[in-house]
Amino acid sequence: MDTMKARVLRAVGNLEYCDYPMPEVKPDEVLFKVKACGICGSDIPRIFVNGTYHFPTIPGHEFSGEVVGVGDDKNKELIGTRAAVFPLIPCMKCENCHNGDYEMCKSYDYLGSRSDGAFAEYVRVPVWNLVPIPDNLSFEEAAMTEPAAVALHALRRAQIEVGDNVVIFGPGTIGMLIAQWARAWGARVLLVGTDANNWDFIESMGFTEYCNSSHEDAIAWVKEMTGGVGADIAIEAVGIALTACNCLEAAASGGKVIFVGNPHGDFTFPQNTYWQILRKQLRIFGTWNSSYSDTHKSDWNMVVDAMANGKIDVKKLITHKYDLETMDKGLEIMKNNSEFFAKIMVVND
Q1: Residue 98: CA atoms inside 13 Å, Cβ hemisphere, count?
Q2: For residue range 119-151, what is the model confidence (pLDDT) as tens digits?
Q3: pTM flag (> 0.70)
């Protein structure tokens, strides 16, 4: 049996580097050679805390690479195609799928959590999920398509407008991608973080209006920066109750609040904070994943175009690179927050 090198999650905390059977490719699928795969923040609890839907599983869902084989001859022209991959595999049967809202599919599969993903040399990918990339886009940049699409989707949900004051609580990888999109849209970007954030790095990305809430009152700062009005759009990109409350407090009357961060436990709102929703008639949006279709206005196609044209710079966000054998170092950095990182990338030669 043909084998490949892979990182196989056999139990919580046991991500084994080993030889693993090559994927079996079916009709309407391709054999995809992984060139680069980002480690997502969600991979840390998946590997070290919660596990996944079954064992063994190969994690990894932010990836790019090249088609090297096909499941049937009708797709043989795809061999050699450079692509990013939409990791969600919809059922195509539920109401949401029929409406084209594939990210809200009620019975989806997912590469890297429900099915084997891209912490491996090869992965099987449905043809439908391939997003071709231009030659001037590197595989490492293309592996950023998934988080960049999540960031874009959040702002599109909020119907951002030119000139909006946008405050982002949590300038991590997703927060900084949202910030780049908001700036490209013509919005003013305000960033709120803590001592844990690298403010020199954030300045190097061209963002100079920020508040370190470890030492400053973030709500008062947002009000001061907006002439007492508050933010047109307040974005929660951390996933904790404190920043969720801060978003409600920092938003302007009639403003929009969008929740992006995966929650780290239960949320409780103080009564006075909950009043903000009512008294200011706030519009609250949830966002999940990203939109996907074969049109040029799909989040994924817009991201690829923006990266290829230089409107969005994802290169600077890639702070660490490892291969499959040494990626434990990257996982430990993320798990223990032992040094500054933005995006840690696993790269295959």
Answers
A1: 3
A2: 999 999 999 999 999 999 999 999 999 999 999
A3: yes
Site of tokens 């969008």: 258
Average of per-residue pLDDT across 73-89: 97
Owner of token pair 């997502």: 40
- Distance between CA atoms of 304 and 314, rounded to whole angstroms? 11
* Structure tokens, 334: 């993320």
Query: Which tens digits make up the pLDDT trace of 20-54?
Result: 999 999 999 999 999 999 999 999 999 999 999 99
Angle 294-296-301 from CA coordinates, rounded to 5°: 80
The pLDDT assigned to 264 comes to: 86
pLDDT of residue 294: 75
Handedness of CA 9, 15, 21, 26 (dihedral sign): positive
Question: Which pLDDT score is estimated for 280?
Answer: 98
- Rounded CA separation 229/235 (Å): 16
Report the first-to-last Cα separation within the chain, whole angstroms.
Answer: 23
Answer whether residue 296 shows pLDDT above 80: no
How many CB atoms are closer than 10 A to CB 262? 13
Give exposure, 308-334, as e/b (b: 16+ Cβ within 10 Å).
beeebbbeebbbbebebeebeebbebb
Alpha helices in 158-298 (DSSP H): 173-185, 199-204, 218-225, 241-250, 271-279
- Joined tokens for residue 271: 């009564």
Q: Which long-range contacts (CB under 8 A, 24 or more apart) does 22-27 make?
A: 22/122, 23/116, 23/122, 23/123, 23/124, 24/124, 25/69, 25/70, 25/71, 25/124, 26/71, 26/124, 27/71, 27/72
pLDDT for position 1: 67
CA–CA gap between residue 112 and residue 209 (Å, rounded)? 36
How far is residue 172's CA from residue 169's CA, in Å, rounded to a whole number?
9
* Percent over 70 (pLDDT), the chain: 100
Neighbours of 128 (CB within 10 A): 14
**CA 253 to mean position of chain CA atoms:** 29
Write down the pLDDT at residue 142: 98
- Whole-number Å distance between alpha carbons of 57 and 51: 9
Cβ atoms 292, 299 nearer than 8 A: yes
